[in-house]
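[Q] Does anyone have a clean structure-token version of this?
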Amino acid sequence: MSGRDALVAFARGCPKAELHVHLEGTLEPWLAKQLAQRNSVELQLPPSTSDTSYPFHDLPSFLAVYYGAMSVLRTSRDFEDLTLAYLQKAREQNVKHVEMFFDPQAHVSRGVAFDEILSGMRVALLRASKEFDMSATAIMCFLREESVPSATATLDAALASPYRDIIVGVGLDSNEQDNPPNKFAGIFQRVRQETS
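[A] Here you go.
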């Protein structure tokens, strides 16, 4: 075995923690196509999309593909399938703990109920705990380009959800340009008050 092969084998065997992964960003084209067919959704993907990757060259082009692909996520089962597909792949890489970000505003704005998202994710997280000996939690993100009232409604939905036990934190994501974090200072202050 070469030195490189030994190093790769060592890295594969090491237990790992995935501390920053965006759940919707793990939606591979093969699964997006399956979900589009199941939900009768027309999926618009760039022509050079393979079964495992999307073409993009910067954050705005990535976000265009990202939001287009996630349009296939409609039901609790879809979120369970997405979460489980990612967790299975993580298990193959010997990941033992995952903290995944998710973007409820991107789904609720399309008519998906907040609890559809969380209930599907929760089923997959519980399965991973039992079947994969893996711990996994969720970090709910507020979309930077959305309004503070939209973030407030998202926080209200999370606090009222019977599935909120999987959420261990909140964050920001999406397009940072002209969307400073201080815009959401009041939301984060409220999170501290509501959860302490």
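[Q] Thanks! Anything notable?
[A] The radius of gyration is 18 Å.
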